[in-house]
Amino acid sequence: MQRKYSYPLIVAAGMLGVTAGASMAFASNQDNQANQANQGYQANRVPAGTEQRDEESESAIKDAWLHGKLESALLFNEHLNNFSIDTDVKHGIAYLKGAVESDIDRDLAGEIAKSINGVTEVENELVVDKAQATMSQNNEAAQERQGFKQSVGNATLTARVKSKLLMNGNTGGMAINVDSEKGVVTLSGEVKSSEEKDLAVKLASNTSGATSVTDELVVKSN
Fold this sequence. Notes:
By secondary structure, the chain is an alpha/beta fold. It has eight helices and seven strands; from the N terminus they run H-H-H-H-E-E-H-E-E-H-H-E-E-H-E. Strands 1, 2, 3 and 4 form a four-stranded mixed sheet that branches. A three-stranded mixed sheet has the order 5-6-7. Helix 1 packs across helix 4 and helix 2 runs antiparallel to helix 4. The longest helix has 28 residues.
């Protein structure tokens, strides 16, 4: 099934899943208390079919939540090109369609889907077709998702480096500016000594996800 929603919306659904789940649990608990207190009255007042509609609505919300989690897990897996993988979740069953570059990628996508808490079954219909999988990276939707993924990756790397600088007592983390772009970390600002400058560069270089460091730090003159 083709995706019908913009990727940021799908990811937002996954991130908001816990909130939605908690709200459903609270609403269900409130309904149970009301039914126990007014059982006879409610039996005569609830229109026929209401309970079935409520169950269907709750199931649809849960499926949307699981779909978001699945999309996010595939997007941020560094070994998969999720732009060629179409996903859907219905009644707890995850469906995978599209093309991947190898049998390993096919099995990996299936295992990721199985690992999502709440997914009861996986229908893996992915085919191994390297040409088709590569072609899928060039469409507009794929480019939009790639840009979103890159933005998140840049922010994550920046946060990792900044945290290292702040936690190290020998670097003035607050005075060092950190920017990241596709694995390249840029450090700027003033430091107190050449030793602090070298340490900051080394900490950034040793951060997971950093491919290189651009040193624009200036040693403050006494």
